């Protein structure tokens, strides 16, 4: 699977990747924060085995995708609509992981949409208020604090992720389900894709956090296509309050809570089931 480029109507570049399957229907994959388009490799392969076209893309600021200062959530849906039209896609289902979830929800307004699937998606910061942080681990709370105060502080925080882990660093304890996820190829592919993103540059930080912390530019209540909401009960990156908000405010929602899964655990351990839920919506 090679990296491809599409020039948007405003002149920006949009980087994307496909699984090689052709057709007028497609699954479009919205990455989580830091995730590169290559992080969907096993998903592309899975959809190809089903004969379903799949497309992953980089939001503005990611790798070869041109930055878009002040980007809000609906802007990404507009980019996807342009890309889909150019590729001859007449019907799509969008899957969004984590920070990609809200962008996938936005595509539900598109006439081409047959449905949306989210995995550990954020709910609107402007609507949740302080509940946005309820159940969230401190490191993520600190990241949002940096973004609200000075985006350069957040960039510096992410840059430290590339530093080697000291040999005497405390060992983190993982649940049985997390260890299962870490044993699968998809977990390493996801990690490697995040490293690729951070080695390529940092424009995505301002673009993504602008869309996370500002109003989305649309009302999720206006999305009328089916939306399947996958949520881990042990998710401390995007806690259950976010999944519950989406469940309660999206008209045609189906809530798939997995009480014993974490943020990445549900993405890796339920890959097959999440893919099946999207394939059913696409028809």
Question: What's this model, at a glance?
Answer:
The chain has one domain: Alpha/Beta hydrolase fold, catalytic domain (Rossmann fold). 41% of the residues lie in helices and 17% in strands. It has helices at residues 41-49, 73-86, 101-106, 125-128, 138-149, 151-159, 176-182, 185-200, 203-213, 240-249, 263-269, 271-282; strands spanning 4-7, 13-18, 25-30, 53-57, 91-97, 113-119, 227-232, 253-258.
SSE layout and pairings?
Layout lengths: L3 E4 L5 E6 L6 E6 L10 H9 L3 E5 L15 H14 L4 E7 L3 H6 L6 E7 L5 H4 L9 H12 L1 H9 L16 H7 L2 H16 L2 H11 L13 E6 L7 H10 L3 E6 L4 H7 L1 H12 L1
Parallel strand pairs: 3-4, 3-5, 5-6, 6-7, 7-8
Antiparallel strand pairs: 1-2, 2-4
CATH architecture tag: 3-Layer(aba) Sandwich
Query: Please, what is the CATH homologous superfamily?
Result: Alpha/Beta hydrolase fold, catalytic domain
**Strand coverage percent:** 15-25%
Largest sheet: 8 strands, mixed
* Helix count from the secondary structure assignment: 12
Give the beta-strand count.
8
Radius of gyration, whole Å: 17 Å
Helix content: 40-55%
CATH class: Alpha Beta
The computed structural class is alpha/beta
Could you tell me the CATH topology label.
Rossmann fold
* Sequence of secondary-structure elements: EEEHEHEHEHHHHHHEHEHH
CA-CA gap between termini: 25 Å
Strand order of the largest sheet: 1-2-4-3-5-6-7-8
> What is the domain total for the residues?
1
Identify low-pLDDT runs.
Answer: none
The shape, in one word, is globular
- Averaging pLDDT over every residue, what do you get? 96
């Amino acid at each position: 699977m090679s990296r491809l480029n599409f020039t948007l109507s405003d002149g920006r570049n949009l980087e994307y990747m496909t699984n090689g399957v052709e057709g007028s229907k497609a699954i479009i994959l919205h990455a989580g924060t830091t995730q590169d388009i290559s992080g969907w490799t096993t998903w592309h392969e899975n959809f190809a085995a089903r004969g379903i076209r799949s497309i992953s893309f980089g939001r503005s600021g990611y790798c070869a995708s041109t930055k878009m200062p002040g980007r809000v959530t609906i802007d990404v849906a507009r980019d996807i609509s342009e890309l889909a039209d150019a590729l001859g896609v007449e019907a799509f289902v969008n899957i969004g992981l984590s920070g990609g979830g809200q962008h996938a929800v936005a595509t539900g307004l598109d006439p081409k949409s047959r449905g949306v699937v989210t995995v550990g998606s954020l709910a609107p910061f402007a609507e949740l208020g302080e509940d946005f942080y309820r159940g969230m681990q401190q490191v993520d709370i600190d990241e949002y604090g940096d973004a609200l105060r000075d985006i350069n502080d957040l960039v510096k925080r992410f840059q430290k992720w590339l530093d080697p882990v000291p040999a005497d660093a405390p060992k983190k304890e993982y649940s049985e389900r997390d260890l299962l996820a870490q044993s699968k190829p998809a977990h390493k592919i996801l990690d490697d894709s995040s490293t690729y993103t951070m080695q390529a540059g940092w424009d995505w930080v301002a673009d993504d956090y602008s869309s996370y912390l500002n109003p989305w530019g649309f009302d999720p209540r206006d999305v009328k296509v089916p939306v399947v909401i996958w949520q881990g009960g042990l998710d401390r990156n995007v806690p259950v309050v976010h999944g519950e908000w989406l469940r309660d405010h999206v008209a045609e929602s189906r809530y798939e809570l997995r009480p014993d899964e974490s943020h990445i655990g549900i993405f890796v351990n339920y890959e097959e089931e999440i893919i099946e839920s999207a394939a059913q919506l696409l028809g």
